[in-house]
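Budget justification aside, the reviewers requested a transparent look at the raw inputs and outputs of the sequence design task funded under Objective 1. We therefore reproduce one unedited record. The lines immediately below are the C-alpha coordinates for a 500-residue chain.
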Protein backbone atom coordinates (compact mmCIF):
# COMPACT_ATOMS: atom_id res chain seq x y z
CA UNK A 1 0.00 0.00 0.00
CA UNK A 2 1.27 3.38 -0.92
CA UNK A 3 1.41 5.48 2.23
CA UNK A 4 3.51 8.45 1.30
CA UNK A 5 1.82 11.78 0.77
CA UNK A 6 3.24 13.94 -1.97
CA UNK A 7 2.10 17.01 -0.11
CA UNK A 8 4.46 16.32 2.79
CA UNK A 9 2.31 14.37 5.26
CA UNK A 10 2.06 10.67 5.88
CA UNK A 11 -0.93 8.34 6.28
CA UNK A 12 -0.26 4.79 7.42
CA UNK A 13 -2.72 2.07 8.35
CA UNK A 14 -1.60 1.50 11.90
CA UNK A 15 -2.63 4.44 14.05
CA UNK A 16 0.14 6.82 13.07
CA UNK A 17 0.14 10.61 13.19
CA UNK A 18 1.26 13.14 10.71
CA UNK A 19 4.81 14.48 11.07
CA UNK A 20 5.43 17.84 9.46
CA UNK A 21 8.32 20.22 8.80
CA UNK A 22 11.24 17.83 9.06
CA UNK A 23 14.28 20.10 8.85
CA UNK A 24 17.92 19.58 7.86
CA UNK A 25 18.77 19.13 11.54
CA UNK A 26 16.67 15.94 11.46
CA UNK A 27 14.29 17.30 14.11
CA UNK A 28 10.61 16.80 13.26
CA UNK A 29 7.81 18.86 14.73
CA UNK A 30 4.65 16.98 15.70
CA UNK A 31 1.71 19.44 15.38
CA UNK A 32 -0.43 19.81 18.50
CA UNK A 33 -3.60 19.69 16.37
CA UNK A 34 -2.82 16.03 15.66
CA UNK A 35 -1.63 15.14 19.17
CA UNK A 36 -4.74 16.44 20.92
CA UNK A 37 -7.22 14.20 19.03
CA UNK A 38 -4.97 11.23 19.72
CA UNK A 39 -5.03 11.94 23.46
CA UNK A 40 -8.82 12.25 23.33
CA UNK A 41 -9.05 8.96 21.43
CA UNK A 42 -6.90 7.20 24.05
CA UNK A 43 -9.05 8.62 26.85
CA UNK A 44 -12.30 7.28 25.36
CA UNK A 45 -10.65 3.99 24.39
CA UNK A 46 -10.64 4.08 20.59
CA UNK A 47 -7.78 4.07 18.11
CA UNK A 48 -7.08 6.81 15.64
CA UNK A 49 -8.28 4.52 12.86
CA UNK A 50 -11.73 4.16 14.37
CA UNK A 51 -11.94 7.81 15.38
CA UNK A 52 -11.28 8.76 11.74
CA UNK A 53 -13.83 6.19 10.58
CA UNK A 54 -16.44 7.66 12.93
CA UNK A 55 -15.90 11.14 11.53
CA UNK A 56 -16.20 10.19 7.85
CA UNK A 57 -19.20 7.91 8.39
CA UNK A 58 -20.89 10.57 10.49
CA UNK A 59 -20.56 13.05 7.64
CA UNK A 60 -21.82 10.48 5.15
CA UNK A 61 -24.86 9.73 7.33
CA UNK A 62 -25.70 13.43 7.80
CA UNK A 63 -25.81 14.00 4.03
CA UNK A 64 -27.50 10.76 2.90
CA UNK A 65 -30.17 10.55 5.63
CA UNK A 66 -32.04 13.61 4.35
CA UNK A 67 -32.23 12.38 0.74
CA UNK A 68 -35.31 10.28 1.55
CA UNK A 69 -36.53 11.84 4.80
CA UNK A 70 -39.39 13.66 3.03
CA UNK A 71 -40.61 10.78 0.87
CA UNK A 72 -43.70 9.97 2.97
CA UNK A 73 -44.57 13.60 3.78
CA UNK A 74 -44.78 15.15 0.32
CA UNK A 75 -48.51 15.81 0.49
CA UNK A 76 -48.24 18.06 3.55
CA UNK A 77 -45.14 19.81 2.20
CA UNK A 78 -46.87 20.37 -1.14
CA UNK A 79 -49.74 22.08 0.69
CA UNK A 80 -47.29 24.26 2.61
CA UNK A 81 -45.53 25.34 -0.61
CA UNK A 82 -48.76 25.65 -2.64
CA UNK A 83 -47.77 23.08 -5.23
CA UNK A 84 -48.64 19.52 -6.29
CA UNK A 85 -47.18 16.26 -5.02
CA UNK A 86 -46.24 15.38 -8.61
CA UNK A 87 -44.09 18.50 -8.91
CA UNK A 88 -42.58 18.01 -5.47
CA UNK A 89 -41.53 14.45 -6.31
CA UNK A 90 -38.41 16.08 -7.78
CA UNK A 91 -37.37 16.96 -4.22
CA UNK A 92 -36.79 13.19 -3.85
CA UNK A 93 -35.82 12.10 -7.38
CA UNK A 94 -33.43 15.01 -7.98
CA UNK A 95 -31.26 14.46 -4.88
CA UNK A 96 -31.19 10.68 -5.46
CA UNK A 97 -29.92 11.20 -9.01
CA UNK A 98 -27.43 13.88 -7.97
CA UNK A 99 -26.02 11.82 -5.09
CA UNK A 100 -25.08 8.99 -7.42
CA UNK A 101 -24.17 10.86 -10.61
CA UNK A 102 -21.79 13.48 -9.18
CA UNK A 103 -19.87 10.99 -7.03
CA UNK A 104 -17.30 9.79 -9.62
CA UNK A 105 -16.11 13.34 -10.25
CA UNK A 106 -15.64 13.87 -6.50
CA UNK A 107 -13.83 10.54 -6.24
CA UNK A 108 -11.36 11.57 -8.92
CA UNK A 109 -10.97 15.04 -7.42
CA UNK A 110 -10.13 13.48 -4.03
CA UNK A 111 -7.59 11.15 -5.59
CA UNK A 112 -5.94 14.12 -7.30
CA UNK A 113 -6.14 16.86 -4.68
CA UNK A 114 -6.71 15.04 -1.39
CA UNK A 115 -9.87 13.53 0.08
CA UNK A 116 -9.74 15.65 3.22
CA UNK A 117 -10.27 18.83 1.22
CA UNK A 118 -13.09 17.31 -0.84
CA UNK A 119 -14.80 15.84 2.23
CA UNK A 120 -14.68 19.07 4.24
CA UNK A 121 -15.88 21.26 1.37
CA UNK A 122 -18.64 18.78 0.54
CA UNK A 123 -19.97 18.91 4.10
CA UNK A 124 -19.74 22.70 4.24
CA UNK A 125 -21.72 23.22 1.05
CA UNK A 126 -24.23 20.53 2.00
CA UNK A 127 -24.87 22.44 5.23
CA UNK A 128 -25.07 25.77 3.42
CA UNK A 129 -27.68 24.52 0.96
CA UNK A 130 -29.45 22.79 3.85
CA UNK A 131 -29.97 26.20 5.45
CA UNK A 132 -31.36 27.54 2.17
CA UNK A 133 -33.69 24.52 1.93
CA UNK A 134 -35.10 25.40 5.35
CA UNK A 135 -36.08 28.88 4.10
CA UNK A 136 -37.27 27.80 0.63
CA UNK A 137 -40.15 29.97 -0.54
CA UNK A 138 -41.64 27.74 -3.24
CA UNK A 139 -41.32 24.31 -4.84
CA UNK A 140 -38.70 25.37 -7.40
CA UNK A 141 -36.38 26.88 -4.78
CA UNK A 142 -36.76 23.88 -2.48
CA UNK A 143 -36.03 21.36 -5.25
CA UNK A 144 -33.02 23.38 -6.43
CA UNK A 145 -31.51 23.65 -2.95
CA UNK A 146 -32.15 19.95 -2.22
CA UNK A 147 -30.35 18.94 -5.43
CA UNK A 148 -27.42 21.25 -4.71
CA UNK A 149 -27.16 19.99 -1.14
CA UNK A 150 -27.17 16.35 -2.29
CA UNK A 151 -24.64 17.15 -5.02
CA UNK A 152 -22.27 18.57 -2.42
CA UNK A 153 -22.98 15.82 0.08
CA UNK A 154 -22.19 13.09 -2.44
CA UNK A 155 -18.51 13.98 -1.93
CA UNK A 156 -18.63 12.24 1.45
CA UNK A 157 -19.23 8.74 0.01
CA UNK A 158 -16.05 8.26 -2.07
CA UNK A 159 -13.98 10.18 0.50
CA UNK A 160 -15.16 7.88 3.29
CA UNK A 161 -14.35 4.85 1.14
CA UNK A 162 -10.88 6.20 0.38
CA UNK A 163 -10.10 6.78 4.07
CA UNK A 164 -11.24 3.28 5.00
CA UNK A 165 -9.09 1.69 2.34
CA UNK A 166 -6.04 3.70 3.34
CA UNK A 167 -6.41 3.18 7.08
CA UNK A 168 -7.06 -0.56 7.03
CA UNK A 169 -5.10 -3.37 5.44
CA UNK A 170 -6.94 -5.51 2.81
CA UNK A 171 -7.56 -8.40 5.21
CA UNK A 172 -9.00 -5.98 7.82
CA UNK A 173 -11.32 -3.96 5.58
CA UNK A 174 -14.50 -6.04 5.75
CA UNK A 175 -15.61 -4.72 9.16
CA UNK A 176 -15.17 -0.98 8.42
CA UNK A 177 -16.60 -1.47 4.93
CA UNK A 178 -19.62 -3.17 6.48
CA UNK A 179 -20.20 0.02 8.46
CA UNK A 180 -19.74 2.05 5.25
CA UNK A 181 -22.32 -0.17 3.54
CA UNK A 182 -24.70 0.20 6.47
CA UNK A 183 -24.39 3.98 6.28
CA UNK A 184 -24.82 4.27 2.51
CA UNK A 185 -27.73 1.80 2.34
CA UNK A 186 -29.18 2.21 5.81
CA UNK A 187 -29.29 6.00 6.12
CA UNK A 188 -31.76 6.51 3.22
CA UNK A 189 -33.90 3.65 4.55
CA UNK A 190 -33.96 5.14 8.05
CA UNK A 191 -34.82 8.45 6.42
CA UNK A 192 -37.99 6.93 4.99
CA UNK A 193 -38.91 5.12 8.22
CA UNK A 194 -38.36 8.12 10.49
CA UNK A 195 -39.38 10.83 8.01
CA UNK A 196 -43.10 10.95 8.80
CA UNK A 197 -42.70 11.08 12.63
CA UNK A 198 -40.00 13.75 12.36
CA UNK A 199 -41.97 15.94 9.96
CA UNK A 200 -45.10 15.56 12.09
CA UNK A 201 -43.33 16.39 15.34
CA UNK A 202 -40.88 19.15 14.37
CA UNK A 203 -41.81 20.15 10.81
CA UNK A 204 -39.93 19.61 7.56
CA UNK A 205 -38.07 22.92 7.72
CA UNK A 206 -36.69 22.15 11.17
CA UNK A 207 -35.10 18.95 9.84
CA UNK A 208 -32.85 21.01 7.59
CA UNK A 209 -32.27 23.67 10.25
CA UNK A 210 -30.85 20.84 12.38
CA UNK A 211 -28.97 19.20 9.49
CA UNK A 212 -27.10 22.36 8.51
CA UNK A 213 -25.16 22.91 11.77
CA UNK A 214 -24.48 19.16 11.98
CA UNK A 215 -22.80 19.31 8.58
CA UNK A 216 -20.86 22.45 9.45
CA UNK A 217 -19.73 21.05 12.81
CA UNK A 218 -18.80 17.80 11.06
CA UNK A 219 -16.72 19.75 8.55
CA UNK A 220 -14.89 21.55 11.39
CA UNK A 221 -14.16 18.26 13.19
CA UNK A 222 -13.02 16.67 9.91
CA UNK A 223 -10.70 19.60 9.18
CA UNK A 224 -9.23 19.27 12.67
CA UNK A 225 -8.96 15.48 12.90
CA UNK A 226 -8.64 13.90 9.45
CA UNK A 227 -5.12 13.33 8.12
CA UNK A 228 -4.23 14.27 4.57
CA UNK A 229 -4.33 11.58 1.90
CA UNK A 230 -1.77 11.20 -0.85
CA UNK A 231 -2.23 13.39 -3.93
CA UNK A 232 -1.24 12.73 -7.53
CA UNK A 233 0.93 15.51 -8.97
CA UNK A 234 0.99 16.83 -12.52
CA UNK A 235 -2.25 15.04 -13.46
CA UNK A 236 -5.14 16.75 -15.23
CA UNK A 237 -8.74 16.32 -14.21
CA UNK A 238 -10.78 14.40 -16.80
CA UNK A 239 -13.39 17.09 -17.50
CA UNK A 240 -14.94 15.51 -20.60
CA UNK A 241 -15.08 12.11 -18.94
CA UNK A 242 -16.89 13.58 -15.93
CA UNK A 243 -19.35 15.51 -18.11
CA UNK A 244 -20.20 12.60 -20.41
CA UNK A 245 -20.56 10.10 -17.56
CA UNK A 246 -22.60 12.47 -15.40
CA UNK A 247 -24.77 13.65 -18.30
CA UNK A 248 -25.31 10.14 -19.65
CA UNK A 249 -26.20 8.61 -16.28
CA UNK A 250 -28.53 11.54 -15.49
CA UNK A 251 -30.37 11.28 -18.81
CA UNK A 252 -30.82 7.50 -18.54
CA UNK A 253 -31.96 7.63 -14.91
CA UNK A 254 -34.27 10.56 -15.66
CA UNK A 255 -35.93 8.67 -18.50
CA UNK A 256 -36.33 5.50 -16.46
CA UNK A 257 -37.61 7.33 -13.38
CA UNK A 258 -40.33 9.12 -15.36
CA UNK A 259 -41.18 6.27 -17.74
CA UNK A 260 -44.13 4.95 -15.76
CA UNK A 261 -45.56 8.46 -15.29
CA UNK A 262 -45.15 9.82 -18.84
CA UNK A 263 -45.40 6.53 -20.73
CA UNK A 264 -42.50 4.49 -22.07
CA UNK A 265 -43.33 5.46 -25.65
CA UNK A 266 -43.40 9.19 -24.84
CA UNK A 267 -41.01 11.16 -27.09
CA UNK A 268 -39.48 12.79 -24.01
CA UNK A 269 -38.66 9.40 -22.48
CA UNK A 270 -37.25 7.99 -25.72
CA UNK A 271 -35.12 11.07 -26.34
CA UNK A 272 -33.85 11.15 -22.75
CA UNK A 273 -32.78 7.49 -22.70
CA UNK A 274 -31.32 7.65 -26.21
CA UNK A 275 -29.34 10.79 -25.34
CA UNK A 276 -28.07 9.17 -22.17
CA UNK A 277 -26.87 6.06 -24.01
CA UNK A 278 -25.11 8.20 -26.61
CA UNK A 279 -23.33 10.17 -23.88
CA UNK A 280 -22.28 6.98 -22.10
CA UNK A 281 -20.91 5.65 -25.38
CA UNK A 282 -19.02 8.91 -25.80
CA UNK A 283 -17.70 8.48 -22.23
CA UNK A 284 -16.11 5.17 -23.23
CA UNK A 285 -14.63 6.83 -26.33
CA UNK A 286 -13.19 9.68 -24.21
CA UNK A 287 -11.72 7.29 -21.65
CA UNK A 288 -9.88 5.38 -24.38
CA UNK A 289 -8.12 8.52 -25.59
CA UNK A 290 -7.52 10.63 -22.48
CA UNK A 291 -4.15 10.42 -20.75
CA UNK A 292 -5.56 10.19 -17.20
CA UNK A 293 -9.08 8.71 -17.45
CA UNK A 294 -11.77 9.25 -14.85
CA UNK A 295 -12.31 5.48 -14.77
CA UNK A 296 -9.69 3.07 -16.14
CA UNK A 297 -11.48 0.96 -18.77
CA UNK A 298 -9.43 -2.03 -17.64
CA UNK A 299 -11.84 -2.20 -14.70
CA UNK A 300 -14.53 -3.47 -17.08
CA UNK A 301 -12.29 -6.48 -17.80
CA UNK A 302 -11.32 -7.09 -14.17
CA UNK A 303 -13.64 -9.73 -12.61
CA UNK A 304 -13.18 -8.53 -9.02
CA UNK A 305 -14.21 -5.01 -10.00
CA UNK A 306 -16.85 -5.42 -12.71
CA UNK A 307 -18.68 -8.42 -11.20
CA UNK A 308 -19.02 -7.06 -7.62
CA UNK A 309 -20.35 -3.73 -8.89
CA UNK A 310 -22.84 -5.49 -11.20
CA UNK A 311 -23.95 -7.83 -8.42
CA UNK A 312 -24.45 -4.93 -6.00
CA UNK A 313 -26.49 -3.01 -8.53
CA UNK A 314 -28.78 -5.97 -9.25
CA UNK A 315 -29.23 -6.79 -5.57
CA UNK A 316 -30.01 -3.15 -4.85
CA UNK A 317 -32.58 -3.28 -7.69
CA UNK A 318 -34.53 -5.82 -5.66
CA UNK A 319 -33.80 -4.31 -2.24
CA UNK A 320 -34.87 -0.73 -2.99
CA UNK A 321 -37.62 -1.76 -5.42
CA UNK A 322 -39.10 -3.91 -2.69
CA UNK A 323 -38.71 -1.06 -0.23
CA UNK A 324 -41.03 1.06 -2.40
CA UNK A 325 -43.45 -1.71 -3.40
CA UNK A 326 -44.08 -3.50 -0.10
CA UNK A 327 -45.57 -0.54 1.85
CA UNK A 328 -47.98 0.01 -1.07
CA UNK A 329 -48.89 -3.69 -1.01
CA UNK A 330 -49.63 -3.52 2.70
CA UNK A 331 -51.59 -0.29 2.32
CA UNK A 332 -53.57 -0.69 -0.89
CA UNK A 333 -53.61 -4.47 -1.09
CA UNK A 334 -54.13 -5.50 2.53
CA UNK A 335 -55.65 -2.27 3.91
CA UNK A 336 -53.25 -1.88 6.85
CA UNK A 337 -52.92 1.36 8.77
CA UNK A 338 -49.74 3.45 8.49
CA UNK A 339 -48.78 2.59 12.07
CA UNK A 340 -49.19 -1.12 11.40
CA UNK A 341 -47.10 -0.85 8.24
CA UNK A 342 -44.40 1.09 10.05
CA UNK A 343 -43.95 -1.61 12.69
CA UNK A 344 -43.63 -4.29 10.00
CA UNK A 345 -41.28 -2.58 7.54
CA UNK A 346 -38.82 -1.61 10.28
CA UNK A 347 -37.80 -5.30 10.32
CA UNK A 348 -35.65 -4.67 7.26
CA UNK A 349 -33.47 -1.76 8.44
CA UNK A 350 -33.29 -3.35 11.89
CA UNK A 351 -31.86 -6.65 10.62
CA UNK A 352 -29.60 -4.82 8.19
CA UNK A 353 -28.16 -2.67 10.98
CA UNK A 354 -27.40 -5.80 13.02
CA UNK A 355 -26.08 -8.04 10.24
CA UNK A 356 -23.96 -5.49 8.33
CA UNK A 357 -21.37 -5.07 11.12
CA UNK A 358 -21.54 -8.72 12.30
CA UNK A 359 -21.46 -10.12 8.77
CA UNK A 360 -17.83 -9.11 8.48
CA UNK A 361 -16.88 -11.93 10.87
CA UNK A 362 -18.66 -14.41 8.61
CA UNK A 363 -16.90 -13.02 5.55
CA UNK A 364 -13.51 -13.26 7.23
CA UNK A 365 -14.09 -17.00 7.67
CA UNK A 366 -15.89 -18.04 4.47
CA UNK A 367 -14.65 -15.40 2.02
CA UNK A 368 -16.36 -12.64 0.03
CA UNK A 369 -17.61 -14.98 -2.71
CA UNK A 370 -19.70 -17.13 -0.36
CA UNK A 371 -20.96 -14.14 1.66
CA UNK A 372 -22.07 -12.24 -1.43
CA UNK A 373 -23.78 -15.28 -2.98
CA UNK A 374 -25.60 -16.17 0.24
CA UNK A 375 -26.57 -12.53 0.76
CA UNK A 376 -28.03 -12.16 -2.73
CA UNK A 377 -29.80 -15.49 -2.21
CA UNK A 378 -31.44 -14.15 0.95
CA UNK A 379 -32.67 -11.07 -0.95
CA UNK A 380 -34.08 -13.33 -3.68
CA UNK A 381 -35.82 -15.49 -1.06
CA UNK A 382 -37.25 -12.32 0.49
CA UNK A 383 -38.74 -11.19 -2.82
CA UNK A 384 -40.26 -14.64 -3.49
CA UNK A 385 -41.73 -14.80 0.02
CA UNK A 386 -43.22 -11.31 -0.23
CA UNK A 387 -44.77 -12.17 -3.61
CA UNK A 388 -46.86 -14.80 -1.76
CA UNK A 389 -48.35 -12.27 0.68
CA UNK A 390 -52.12 -11.96 0.45
CA UNK A 391 -55.23 -11.40 2.56
CA UNK A 392 -54.89 -13.37 5.75
CA UNK A 393 -51.09 -13.55 5.71
CA UNK A 394 -49.75 -13.33 9.25
CA UNK A 395 -47.64 -10.41 10.38
CA UNK A 396 -44.80 -12.69 11.48
CA UNK A 397 -44.47 -14.06 7.93
CA UNK A 398 -44.38 -10.55 6.42
CA UNK A 399 -41.84 -9.30 8.98
CA UNK A 400 -39.70 -12.39 8.47
CA UNK A 401 -39.76 -11.99 4.69
CA UNK A 402 -38.73 -8.34 5.03
CA UNK A 403 -35.97 -9.29 7.48
CA UNK A 404 -34.50 -11.64 4.89
CA UNK A 405 -33.74 -8.61 2.69
CA UNK A 406 -31.94 -6.86 5.53
CA UNK A 407 -29.90 -9.97 6.33
CA UNK A 408 -29.08 -10.49 2.64
CA UNK A 409 -27.86 -6.99 1.90
CA UNK A 410 -26.04 -6.89 5.23
CA UNK A 411 -24.02 -9.93 4.16
CA UNK A 412 -23.51 -9.16 0.47
CA UNK A 413 -22.82 -5.43 0.34
CA UNK A 414 -19.74 -5.24 2.63
CA UNK A 415 -18.20 -8.33 1.02
CA UNK A 416 -18.62 -7.00 -2.53
CA UNK A 417 -17.39 -3.55 -1.51
CA UNK A 418 -14.26 -5.06 0.03
CA UNK A 419 -13.52 -7.00 -3.17
CA UNK A 420 -13.55 -3.84 -5.26
CA UNK A 421 -11.43 -1.94 -2.72
CA UNK A 422 -8.81 -4.69 -2.71
CA UNK A 423 -8.71 -4.89 -6.52
CA UNK A 424 -7.87 -1.25 -7.33
CA UNK A 425 -4.73 0.83 -6.83
CA UNK A 426 -4.60 3.20 -3.88
CA UNK A 427 -4.61 6.14 -6.30
CA UNK A 428 -8.06 5.12 -7.58
CA UNK A 429 -9.80 4.29 -4.30
CA UNK A 430 -11.98 7.41 -4.39
CA UNK A 431 -13.19 6.76 -7.94
CA UNK A 432 -13.84 3.10 -7.15
CA UNK A 433 -16.04 4.05 -4.20
CA UNK A 434 -17.86 6.63 -6.29
CA UNK A 435 -18.54 4.15 -9.11
CA UNK A 436 -20.06 1.76 -6.59
CA UNK A 437 -22.17 4.61 -5.22
CA UNK A 438 -23.34 5.48 -8.74
CA UNK A 439 -24.21 1.90 -9.70
CA UNK A 440 -26.02 1.30 -6.40
CA UNK A 441 -28.05 4.43 -7.02
CA UNK A 442 -28.82 3.34 -10.57
CA UNK A 443 -29.95 -0.04 -9.29
CA UNK A 444 -32.20 1.63 -6.71
CA UNK A 445 -33.81 4.05 -9.19
CA UNK A 446 -34.24 1.44 -11.93
CA UNK A 447 -35.53 -1.17 -9.47
CA UNK A 448 -38.16 1.06 -7.90
CA UNK A 449 -39.28 2.39 -11.29
CA UNK A 450 -39.45 -0.96 -13.09
CA UNK A 451 -41.22 -2.71 -10.22
CA UNK A 452 -43.80 0.08 -9.95
CA UNK A 453 -44.34 -0.10 -13.73
CA UNK A 454 -44.89 -3.87 -13.55
CA UNK A 455 -47.42 -3.38 -10.76
CA UNK A 456 -49.33 -0.71 -12.68
CA UNK A 457 -49.32 -2.61 -15.97
CA UNK A 458 -50.67 -5.85 -14.42
CA UNK A 459 -53.47 -4.35 -12.32
CA UNK A 460 -56.05 -6.17 -14.47
CA UNK A 461 -54.95 -9.44 -12.83
CA UNK A 462 -55.84 -8.08 -9.39
CA UNK A 463 -54.15 -5.51 -7.17
CA UNK A 464 -52.46 -7.94 -4.78
CA UNK A 465 -51.38 -10.17 -7.67
CA UNK A 466 -49.85 -7.21 -9.51
CA UNK A 467 -47.62 -6.47 -6.52
CA UNK A 468 -46.58 -10.13 -6.55
CA UNK A 469 -45.46 -9.90 -10.19
CA UNK A 470 -43.37 -6.85 -9.37
CA UNK A 471 -41.70 -8.61 -6.45
CA UNK A 472 -40.94 -11.66 -8.60
CA UNK A 473 -39.12 -9.34 -11.02
CA UNK A 474 -37.00 -8.24 -8.07
CA UNK A 475 -36.34 -11.89 -7.22
CA UNK A 476 -35.09 -12.51 -10.77
CA UNK A 477 -32.64 -9.59 -10.51
CA UNK A 478 -31.39 -10.70 -7.10
CA UNK A 479 -30.90 -14.19 -8.55
CA UNK A 480 -28.88 -12.71 -11.39
CA UNK A 481 -26.82 -10.85 -8.79
CA UNK A 482 -26.15 -14.15 -7.00
CA UNK A 483 -24.97 -15.80 -10.24
CA UNK A 484 -22.65 -12.90 -11.03
CA UNK A 485 -21.28 -12.97 -7.47
CA UNK A 486 -20.28 -16.61 -8.06
CA UNK A 487 -17.72 -15.35 -10.60
CA UNK A 488 -15.64 -13.36 -8.09
CA UNK A 489 -12.50 -14.56 -6.29
CA UNK A 490 -12.28 -14.14 -2.52
CA UNK A 491 -9.36 -12.31 -0.93
CA UNK A 492 -6.53 -14.65 0.05
CA UNK A 493 -6.29 -14.50 3.86
CA UNK A 494 -4.08 -17.54 4.34
CA UNK A 495 -1.06 -15.46 5.35
CA UNK A 496 -3.18 -13.38 7.70
CA UNK A 497 -4.51 -16.53 9.41
CA UNK A 498 -0.97 -17.82 9.91
CA UNK A 499 0.04 -14.57 11.61
CA UNK A 500 -3.13 -14.51 13.70
Amino acid sequence: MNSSDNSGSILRPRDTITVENAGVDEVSVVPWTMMLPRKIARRVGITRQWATLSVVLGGLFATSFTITVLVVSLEGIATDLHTSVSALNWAIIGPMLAFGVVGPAYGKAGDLWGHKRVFVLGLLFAGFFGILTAVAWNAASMITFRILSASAGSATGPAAMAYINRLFEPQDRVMPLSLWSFTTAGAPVLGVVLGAPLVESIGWRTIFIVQAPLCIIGAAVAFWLLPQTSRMKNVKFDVWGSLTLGGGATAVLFGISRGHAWGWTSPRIIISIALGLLLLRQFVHVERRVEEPLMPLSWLRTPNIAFPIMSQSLTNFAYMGGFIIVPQLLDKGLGMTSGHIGWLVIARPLTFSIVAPLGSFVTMRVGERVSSMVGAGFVMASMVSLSLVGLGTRDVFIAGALALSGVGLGLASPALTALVANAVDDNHLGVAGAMQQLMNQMGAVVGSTVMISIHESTMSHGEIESFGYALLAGAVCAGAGMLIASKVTSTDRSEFRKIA
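Residues 32-231 form a domain with the Growth Hormone; Chain: A; fold (CATH 1.20.1250.20). The CA atoms of residues 175 and 202 lie 35 Å apart. Computational costs for records of this kind are itemized in the attached budget.
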